[in-house]
Backbone:
């Protein structure tokens, strides 16, 4: 089994644990709330990005799938965008690749077959165009969002300069004005 980005799961829970420590033990709720929100963001990113792949190594195996949100995307709230739908692919990136429905049963897998399961991501919270450009810039720097997605989804213009990303405030104002 290959679990991509599993470190996000552990990081999210560690950050949430620290938030509980700050709030419940030290009674310092200001930082506790900030750390708690950070932990939730990490966990949401984990849920949006996780892909599991299973390869059959020896003998045939029977495969059944019961999943949700493969055809209807998770809804966003407070003007947030829809999340990513899930998908299950048999033998991805081969000439035998086949996407299967979210309800599937009793399929025979043979040695060498691979099952790739992309879990659906949660819907967004809040209008992405109202997100602070500096936070979007931080997301680009951390590799969570590409420059293209920052422009398209958040209406934030970010340029690459001397190996770093910088916010183009004038272009961002223009993108957001155009709406």
Residues:
């Amino acid at each position: 089994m290959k679990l991509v980005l599993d470190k996000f799961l552990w990081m999210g829970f560690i950050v949430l644990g620290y938030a509980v420590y700050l709030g419940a033990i030290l009674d310092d709720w200001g930082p506790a709330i900030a750390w708690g929100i950070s932990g939730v963001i990490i966990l949401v990113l984990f849920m949006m990005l996780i892909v599991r792949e299973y390869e059959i190594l020896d003998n045939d195996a029977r495969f059944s799938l019961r999943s949700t949100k493969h055809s209807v995307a998770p809804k966003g709230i407070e003007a947030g965008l829809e999340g990513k739908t899930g998908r299950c692919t048999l033998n991805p990136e081969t000439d035998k690749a086949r996407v299967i429905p979210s309800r599937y049963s009793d399929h025979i897998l043979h040695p060498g077959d691979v099952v790739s399961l992309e879990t659906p991501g949660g819907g967004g919270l809040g209008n992405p165009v109202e997100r602070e450009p500096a936070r979007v810039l931080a997301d680009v720097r951390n590799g969570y969002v590409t420059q293209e997605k920052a422009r398209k989804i958040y209406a934030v213009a970010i340029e690459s300069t001397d190996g770093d990303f910088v916010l183009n405030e004038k272009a961002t104002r223009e993108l957001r004005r155009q709406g």
